[in-house]
């Protein structure tokens, strides 16, 4: 499954998302994300940031309009093709989604096992990632004995282990201290520098202000692209591109 590098890797065209036939989360949203882009996704609590991320990795389907990822219309994609696409996306879930019966090492290695990769080819990567996020001493621990911040770091390492083309991070610093939060963001920025597209959903304006990256602002069902925060955010003319 290949996509044209000159085309957006994510494209929303007139996307509507309605819950229970009543509440409009997205209303005619248009936006795009290119190869190597870094975007903060911000907006009021309940605006639909998590829902928008779920549309990108096809956990939700739009009520109307089209969502294309890596050049494929998700609504038209056969179910048996979806796993291939999702393997190109690393997701850091707000609720972690770790398997309690597996160790930290085994949770991080799970995507590689699903891909059928030999343990000899991923063991060093898993150990290195867990060491980088400060969990070398917890490599054999199960999630039931990990703190919330430790679980967040395991979830991040799991999202990165397969070297995805796109990373979607939902409040990745929400359960860690400021020092580890900065370390996590520096890792995401380094991956972005190497060509991985990154979307970070957050309500932490201090984080957004400090890293000075473009912002996708979600409000009232619409997404608009803003320049990095300096003193005050400055909207870029037109819809998100």
TrEMBL record:
Listed GO CC annotations: plasma membrane
Top-rank taxon, per record: Bacteria
Subcellular location: Cell inner membrane; Cell membrane
Membrane topology: Peripheral membrane protein
Residue ranges annotated for the ABC transporter domain, each copy included: 10-239
GO biological process: cell division
Gene Ontology molecular function terms on file: ATP binding; ATP hydrolysis activity; transmembrane transporter activity
Pfam families: ABC_tran
Keywords: ATP-binding, Cell cycle, Cell division, Cell membrane, Membrane, Nucleotide-binding, Transport
First-listed, main subcellular location of the protein, grouped into a coarse class: membrane
Role according to the record: Part of the ABC transporter FtsEX involved in cellular division. Important for assembly or stability of the septal ring.
Complex and partners: Homodimer. Forms a membrane-associated complex with FtsX.
PANTHER family the UniProt entry points to: CELL DIVISION ATP-BINDING PROTEIN FTSE, IMPORT ATP-BINDING PROTEIN
Family that this chain belongs to: Belongs to the ABC transporter superfamily.
Protein name, entry field: Cell division ATP-binding protein FtsE
UniProt organism field: Parvularcula maris
């Amino acid at each position: 499954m290949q996509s044209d590098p000159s085309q957006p890797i994510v494209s929303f065209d007139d996307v509507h998302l309605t819950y229970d036939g009543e509440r409009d989360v997205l209303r005619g949203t248009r936006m795009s994300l290119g190869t190597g882009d870094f975007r903060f996704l911000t907006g009021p609590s309940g605006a639909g940031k998590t829902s928008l991320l779920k549309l990108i990795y096809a956990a939700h389907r739009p009520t109307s309009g089209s969502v294309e990822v890596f050049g494929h219309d998700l609504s038209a994609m056969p179910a048996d093709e979806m796993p291939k696409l999702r393997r190109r996306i690393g997701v850091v879930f707000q609720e972690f989604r770790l398997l309690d019966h597996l160790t930290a090492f085994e949770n991080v290695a799970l995507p590689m096992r699903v891909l059928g990769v030999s343990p000899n080819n991923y063991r060093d990567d898993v150990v290195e990632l867990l060491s980088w996020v400060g969990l070398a001493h917890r490599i054999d621990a199960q999630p039931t004995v990990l703190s919330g911040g430790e679980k967040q770091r395991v979830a991040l390492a799991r999202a990165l282990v397969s070297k995805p083309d796109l990373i979607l991070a939902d409040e990745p610093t929400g359960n860690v201290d400021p020092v580890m939060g900065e370390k996590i963001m520096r890792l995401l920025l380094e991956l972005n520098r190497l060509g991985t597209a990154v979307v970070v959903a957050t309500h932490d304006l201090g984080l957004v202000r400090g890293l000075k990256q473009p912002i996708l602002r979600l409000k009232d069902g619409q997404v608009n692209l803003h320049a990095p925060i300096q003193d005050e955010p400055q909207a870029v003319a037109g819809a998100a591109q």
